């Protein structure tokens, strides 16, 4: 509501000669106009916007009589009220002011009136899926209303999921952000150390037990680990996102949308090469700009390509032969294609394939590969974008290959950007779910941290930070160890979002520290076989604390306690963490009792967040070269002595630098099972040389992507995958065996 008229335009319109210069533009912006002139017809209608409410209080000022008998003035397109007295007008204005103030108060931050769900923990703790099914989630529209979302800001999927429209950011743009907390971890075992579980336990503690607005922001799990080794990512025990089977399987289809968009672009690349190899310039041009009802017209994206080529023409018939050839031929060099097809399943036999062997492909074949969907650049674009327009621009900038003269070829050049955006238009909206205790969760984007940047979406974080308000907390999680997910969160995600974290929560477990101290490997079938009490592996925890301190953010260590841990072990880990520089170190029991078991962690995080953050990036993207930035991460974060570039990696770096991409941050693809490139090197390896086997460029996402050692972007299945235990009860339609 525009209230500017209150002080400026309440004056009688008889003053308009004196106020004309000020009155005219002001009336044009007003929502309500009060007429107090005996000659309202003298006010030009052009001064008043259509749709404005007009209160006609015309009267004879000498007699004080209301001029109801005067000829009625017709304001075309305006909402004209019946003639009213000045008192009635004043009362109406007072009511509108009161309503406006009430509406503004409702839009401003307030502590949520959240109905939290009660837990009744059992001992021994049942399976994750049994716990999930034992809790009835709130209807998602009820949850949305509780946290301040309006009815037209959500799109409901079933009973327990909803997408949140980006319009909420515009409505809350003046709202102060809450505190921003990152959950990272030590170098994990193959089973993970419970970062998702800690994240959920922490927000359950903050909101359900300390009455503090809080939001968890998680990645959507890939089908690869869900059916492979690690299982789902909904948390565990009494700290879960529910319903866990909906969370772990298809959710709202975002990963499928990414798969479709990625593979459409891959198909466009090979198809374009085929058609350019088999057609003349003229035939190619005539098919790219076909006659429709006797007229040729460029599409919008084709006009953009012409502009990029320096051809300032809009009539297809006016291009010269040279311009036709430049426009029609991308001249892609097949050996430079970096865009791969994707599938959201672990399938080692797709790591190297040959495409184009059918007769219809006319002998054009090449070696290619599949990546897992969450390694797609489109997933990274989704996770780093901040608006629909920004996503479209990023998709268009994605570089898929180089042409034969060495220049980058983009999705825009292939003409596919608009179609990719259409496929992704719903995926850009964060997914709203809830924890076992009824607190809100955003699930959005799912890049792996070892082969991508490993963080949930910027948009989910930004919306959550507005919804929790200045005193609230947003807790997001970075994949794998702090050396991978956290480093990328700071150097890539924070650089893209402009957000500054307040606290790092570093998750550790006794079992992982024992493994790093020389204990046996952890496997899915022998989870608790440690008996020794020495914790020499705490060196890994100390190193990860030091990595977080490089960025100037206070660290709270969350020790995820297992039933086999002794009190002495728990106390020793917490003491060593504090000596290493942690702000605090707290044992957590959320897995067995829910948010109640993480109240001490929540209090420690609140206290740490009250301290001043001295956040800083590890390197300056504009000053350092690609090689320097890779070396800085290898030495300062991993502890390497130096790096070693393969000839292929060096050639790619030279090409990307020549193409103008040298000022981008670095996203290392490295094993998550060691600080080094060798998964079996535990603890804190030293004096190793980090081999860089290849380098890719994710220009749309905005980073350079080196591959360390033999890192694969398509995982494989183990001898006994999780799918052996997953089944469907065909009578009840309930999923069994997910964890």
What does this structure look like?
This protein has 739 residues and is α/β, with parallel strands linked by helices. It folds into three domains: 128-252 and 426-610, 3-Layer(aba) Sandwich (Rossmann fold), CATH 3.40.50; 255-424, Domain 2, N(10)-formyltetrahydrofolate synthetase (2-Layer Sandwich), CATH 3.30.1510; 626-708, Formyltetrahydrofolate synthetase, domain 3. The protein has 26 helices and 30 strands. Strands 6, 7, 8, 9, 10, 11, 20, 21, 22, 23, 24 and 25 form a twelve-stranded mixed β-sheet that branches. The longest helix is centred in the middle third of the chain and has 25 residues, at 254-278. It starts with a helix and ends with a strand. In the N-terminal section; belongs to the tetrahydrofolate dehydrogenase/cyclohydrolase family. InterPro entries: Formate_THF_ligase, Formate_THF_ligase_CS, P-loop_NTPase. Pfam families: FTHFS. Pathway: One-carbon metabolism; tetrahydrofolate interconversion. GO terms for molecular function: ATP binding; formate-tetrahydrofolate ligase activity.
Looking at CATH, which topology of the largest domain would you report?
Rossmann fold
Q: Any idea what the radius of gyration is?
A: 31 Å
Number of strands: 30
Give the domain tally: 3
CATH level-four homologous superfamily name of the largest domain: P-loop containing nucleotide triphosphate hydrolases
Oligomer, anyone?
Answer: single chain
Q: In terms of per-residue confidence, which ranges show pLDDT below 50 for 5 or more consecutive residues? A: 1-17, 60-73
The residue fraction in helices comes out at 25-40%
The separation of the N and C termini measures 51 Å
**CATH architectural group of the largest domain:** 3-Layer(aba) Sandwich
Subunit structure: Homodimer.
InterPro entries: Formate_THF_ligase, Formate_THF_ligase_CS, P-loop_NTPase
Keywords: ATP-binding, Ligase, Nucleotide-binding, One-carbon metabolism
GO cellular component, one term: cytoplasm
């Amino acid at each position: 509501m525009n209230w500017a008229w209150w002080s400026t335009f309440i004056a009688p319109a008889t003053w308009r000669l004196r106020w004309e210069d000020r009155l005219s533009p002001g009336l044009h912006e007003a929502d309500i106009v009060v007429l107090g002139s005996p000659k309202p017809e003298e006010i030009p209608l052009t001064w008043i916007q259509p749709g404005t409410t007009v209160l006609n209080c015309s009267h004879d000022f000498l007699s004080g009589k209301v001029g109801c008998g005067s000829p009625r003035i017709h304001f075309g397109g305006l909402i004209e009220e019946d003639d009213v007295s000045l008192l009635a007008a004043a009362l109406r204005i007072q009511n509108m002011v009161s309503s406006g103030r009430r509406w503004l108060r409702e839009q401003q931050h307030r502590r949520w009136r959240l109905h939290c769900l009660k837990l009744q923990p059992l001992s021994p703790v049942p399976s994750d899926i049994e716990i999930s099914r034992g809790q009835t989630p709130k209807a998602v529209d009820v949850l949305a209303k509780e946290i301040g979302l309006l009815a037209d800001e959500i799109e409901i999927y079933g009973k327990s999921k909803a997408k949140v429209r980006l319009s909420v950011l515009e409505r809350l743009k003046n709202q102060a952000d809450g505190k921003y907390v990152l959950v990272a971890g030590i170098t994990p075992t193959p089973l993970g150390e419970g970062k998702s579980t800690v994240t959920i336990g922490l927000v359950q503690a903050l909101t359900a037990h300390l009455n503090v607005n809080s939001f968890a922001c998680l990645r959507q799990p890939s089908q690869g680990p869900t059916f492979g080794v690690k299982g789902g990512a909904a948390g565990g025990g009494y700290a879960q996102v529910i319903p866990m089977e909906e969370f772990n399987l298809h959710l709202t289809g975002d990963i499928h949308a990414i798969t479709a968009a990625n593979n459409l672009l891959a198909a466009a690349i090979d198809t374009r090469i085929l058609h350019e190899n088999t057609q003349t310039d003229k035939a190619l041009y005539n098919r790219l700009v076909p006659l429709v009802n006797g007229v040729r017209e460029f599409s919008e994206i084709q006009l953009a390509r012409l502009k990029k080529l320096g051809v300032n023409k809009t009539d297809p018939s006016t291009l010269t032969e040279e311009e036709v050839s430049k426009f029609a031929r991308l001249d892609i060099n097949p050996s430079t294609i970096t865009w791969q097809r994707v599938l959201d399943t672990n399938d080692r036999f797709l790591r190297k394939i040959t495409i184009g062997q059918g007769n219809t492909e006319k002998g054009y074949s090449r070696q290619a590969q599949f990546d897992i969907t969450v390694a797609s650049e489109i997933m990274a674009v989704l996770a780093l974008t901040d608006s629909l327009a920004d996503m479209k621009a990023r998709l268009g900038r994605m570089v898929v290959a180089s042409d034969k003269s060495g220049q980058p070829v983009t999705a825009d050049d292939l003409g596919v950007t608009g179609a990719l955006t259409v496929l992704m238009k719903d995926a850009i909206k964060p997914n709203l779910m809830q924890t076992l205790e009824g607190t809100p969760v955003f699930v959005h984007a799912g890049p792996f941290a070892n082969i991508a940047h490993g963080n949930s979406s910027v948009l989910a974080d930004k919306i959550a930070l507005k919804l929790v308000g200045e005193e609230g907390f947003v807790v997001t999680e970075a994949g794998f160890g702090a050396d991978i997910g956290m480093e990328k969160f700071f150097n890539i995600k924070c650089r893209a979002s402009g957000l500054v974290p307040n606290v790092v929560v570093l998750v550790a477990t006794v079992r992982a520290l024992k493994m790093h101290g020389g204990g046996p490997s952890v496997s899915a079938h022998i989870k608790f076989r440690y008996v020794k009490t020495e914790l020499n592996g705490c060196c890994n925890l100390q190193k990860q604390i030091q990595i977080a301190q490089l960025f100037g953010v206070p660290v709270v260590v969350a020790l995820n306690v297992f039933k086999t841990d002794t009190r002495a072990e728990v106390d020793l880990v917490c003491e060593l963490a504090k000596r290493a520089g942690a702000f605090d170190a707290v044992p957590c029991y959320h897995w067995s009792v829910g948010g109640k078991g993480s109240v001490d962690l929540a209090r420690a995080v609140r206290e740490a967040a009250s301290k001043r953050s001295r956040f800083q990036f590890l390197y300056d993207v504009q000053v350092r070269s690609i090689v320097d930035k890779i070396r800085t991460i290898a030495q300062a974060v991993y502890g390497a002595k130096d790096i070693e570039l393969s000839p292929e990696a060096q050639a790619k770096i030279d090409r990307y630098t020549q193409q103008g991409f040298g000022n981008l941050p670095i996203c290392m693809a490295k094993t998550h099972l060691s600080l080094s490139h060798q998964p079996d090197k535990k603890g804190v390896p030293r004096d190793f040389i980090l081999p860089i086997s290849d380098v890719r460029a994710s220009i749309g996402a905005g980073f350079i992507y080196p591959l360390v050692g033999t890192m694969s972007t398509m995982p494989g299945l183990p001898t006994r995958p999780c799918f052996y235990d997953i089944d469907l009860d065909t009578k009840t339609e309930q999923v069994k065996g997910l964890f």
